[in-house]
TrEMBL record:
<feature type="domain" description="NIL">
    <location>
        <begin position="14"/>
        <end position="82"/>
    </location>
</feature>
<protein>
    <submittedName>
        <fullName>NIL domain-containing protein</fullName>
    </submittedName>
</protein>
<dbReference type="InterPro" id="IPR018449">
    <property type="entry name" value="NIL_domain"/>
</dbReference>
<dbReference type="Pfam" id="PF09383">
    <property type="entry name" value="NIL"/>
</dbReference>
<dbReference type="InterPro" id="IPR045865">
    <property type="entry name" value="ACT-like_dom_sf"/>
</dbReference>
Length: 95
Protein backbone atom coordinates (compact mmCIF):
# COMPACT_ATOMS: atom_id res chain seq x y z
CA UNK A 1 0.00 0.00 0.00
CA UNK A 2 1.42 3.34 -1.04
CA UNK A 3 1.41 6.10 1.55
CA UNK A 4 0.51 9.67 0.65
CA UNK A 5 2.69 12.34 2.16
CA UNK A 6 1.24 15.68 3.15
CA UNK A 7 3.01 17.20 0.13
CA UNK A 8 1.20 14.90 -2.34
CA UNK A 9 -2.24 15.58 -0.90
CA UNK A 10 -4.44 18.10 -2.71
CA UNK A 11 -5.78 21.02 -0.74
CA UNK A 12 -8.07 23.97 -1.45
CA UNK A 13 -7.32 27.64 -0.97
CA UNK A 14 -9.69 30.54 -1.55
CA UNK A 15 -8.20 33.91 -2.53
CA UNK A 16 -9.37 37.31 -3.71
CA UNK A 17 -7.07 38.54 -6.48
CA UNK A 18 -7.08 42.20 -7.51
CA UNK A 19 -6.25 42.94 -11.15
CA UNK A 20 -4.87 46.45 -11.80
CA UNK A 21 -5.45 48.20 -15.12
CA UNK A 22 -1.92 47.38 -16.32
CA UNK A 23 -2.85 43.66 -16.40
CA UNK A 24 -6.33 44.12 -17.86
CA UNK A 25 -5.38 42.64 -21.26
CA UNK A 26 -2.94 40.00 -20.04
CA UNK A 27 -3.77 36.32 -19.41
CA UNK A 28 -3.02 36.42 -15.66
CA UNK A 29 -5.32 33.50 -14.75
CA UNK A 30 -4.21 31.35 -17.69
CA UNK A 31 -0.56 32.01 -16.86
CA UNK A 32 -1.18 31.08 -13.20
CA UNK A 33 -2.55 27.69 -14.27
CA UNK A 34 0.30 27.10 -16.74
CA UNK A 35 3.05 28.08 -14.30
CA UNK A 36 1.77 26.24 -11.24
CA UNK A 37 -0.28 23.31 -12.54
CA UNK A 38 -3.18 24.26 -10.26
CA UNK A 39 -6.82 23.43 -10.84
CA UNK A 40 -9.02 26.44 -10.32
CA UNK A 41 -12.61 27.54 -10.00
CA UNK A 42 -13.58 31.18 -10.49
CA UNK A 43 -16.29 31.84 -7.90
CA UNK A 44 -16.74 35.57 -8.65
CA UNK A 45 -15.22 38.17 -10.94
CA UNK A 46 -15.53 41.80 -11.94
CA UNK A 47 -13.58 43.30 -14.81
CA UNK A 48 -15.22 46.37 -16.30
CA UNK A 49 -13.98 47.48 -19.70
CA UNK A 50 -15.04 51.10 -19.22
CA UNK A 51 -13.64 51.80 -15.77
CA UNK A 52 -10.40 53.00 -14.27
CA UNK A 53 -10.82 50.79 -11.21
CA UNK A 54 -9.06 47.53 -10.49
CA UNK A 55 -10.92 44.36 -11.30
CA UNK A 56 -10.90 41.23 -9.21
CA UNK A 57 -11.29 37.47 -9.23
CA UNK A 58 -12.39 35.28 -6.34
CA UNK A 59 -10.63 31.97 -6.94
CA UNK A 60 -10.65 28.55 -5.38
CA UNK A 61 -7.24 27.01 -6.05
CA UNK A 62 -6.75 23.23 -5.81
CA UNK A 63 -3.42 21.45 -5.82
CA UNK A 64 -0.58 20.21 -3.66
CA UNK A 65 0.88 22.57 -1.05
CA UNK A 66 3.90 22.98 -3.33
CA UNK A 67 1.70 23.95 -6.31
CA UNK A 68 -0.25 26.41 -4.15
CA UNK A 69 2.98 27.99 -2.87
CA UNK A 70 4.39 28.20 -6.39
CA UNK A 71 1.19 29.81 -7.71
CA UNK A 72 1.06 32.38 -4.90
CA UNK A 73 4.75 33.19 -5.46
CA UNK A 74 4.01 33.73 -9.15
CA UNK A 75 1.20 36.19 -8.32
CA UNK A 76 3.49 37.98 -5.85
CA UNK A 77 6.19 38.27 -8.53
CA UNK A 78 3.65 40.19 -10.65
CA UNK A 79 3.05 42.51 -7.67
CA UNK A 80 -0.65 41.59 -7.58
CA UNK A 81 -2.64 42.06 -4.40
CA UNK A 82 -3.77 38.68 -3.05
CA UNK A 83 -6.15 38.58 -0.10
CA UNK A 84 -6.83 35.29 1.65
CA UNK A 85 -10.38 34.10 2.18
CA UNK A 86 -11.46 32.81 5.60
CA UNK A 87 -11.47 29.09 6.21
CA UNK A 88 -15.29 29.01 6.26
CA UNK A 89 -15.79 25.58 4.69
CA UNK A 90 -13.30 23.77 6.90
CA UNK A 91 -10.54 23.54 4.29
CA UNK A 92 -7.35 21.88 5.37
CA UNK A 93 -5.40 25.07 4.65
CA UNK A 94 -6.05 28.64 3.62
CA UNK A 95 -3.92 31.62 2.64
Amino acid sequence: MQSVSRYDRHIRVRIHLQIPMVYRHQPVISDLISVSGLAMNITAAMLGSNTDDCGYFDLELRGTPQQISHGLAHLKSLDLKVIGKPNSDGDEWHY
